[in-house]
Amino acid sequence: MKIQILGTGCPKCHKLAAEAEQAAKELGLSYELVKVTDINEIMGFGVMITPAMAVDGNVKFAGKVPGVEEIKKHLK
Prior knowledge:
This protein is an alpha+beta fold and 76 residues long. The protein has a single domain, classed as Glutaredoxin. The chain has 3 helices and 4 strands, in the order E-H-E-H-E-E-H. Strands 2-1-3-4 form a 4-stranded mixed β-sheet. The longest helix has 17 residues, at 11-27. The termini are close together.
């Protein structure tokens, strides 16, 4: 599983990355966490507001930092 954190490196982006990593670890998933910081690549996902999270290339949410439990729902 590839978890992509889309954002330019703001504090919210770092928080989302940490929450996503915690959620994946709690679920016992085999995953790769990738931070996508290039604005053109982010826009290629169709994302206009960050932070956002994609799983295997599919955007799950944008513009918010959900809690670990909500992230788990997107990773299952």
